[in-house]
Amino acid sequence: MKELIETIVKPLVDFPEEVLVKVLEEENRVTYQLSVNKNDMGKVIGKQGRVAKAIRTVVYAAGSSQQKKIFLEISE
Which residues form a coiled coil (predicted)? Predict the structure, then answer.
């Protein structure tokens, strides 16, 4: 899943080397923390959050086979 997020986000940003995905796994949930360069935040979020919503939709669909709830957080 981490690779999927990186594959989706890196082509969108100006600084692909600064894309970082951390995984926090808990008992019944997995949280992926996506961190990008400050200048790339707008590109990852998109107008009215459309790009972020699309990324989350793909990640949630890919993780739907898992028994754990999946969350994607986007930060600088």
Answer: none
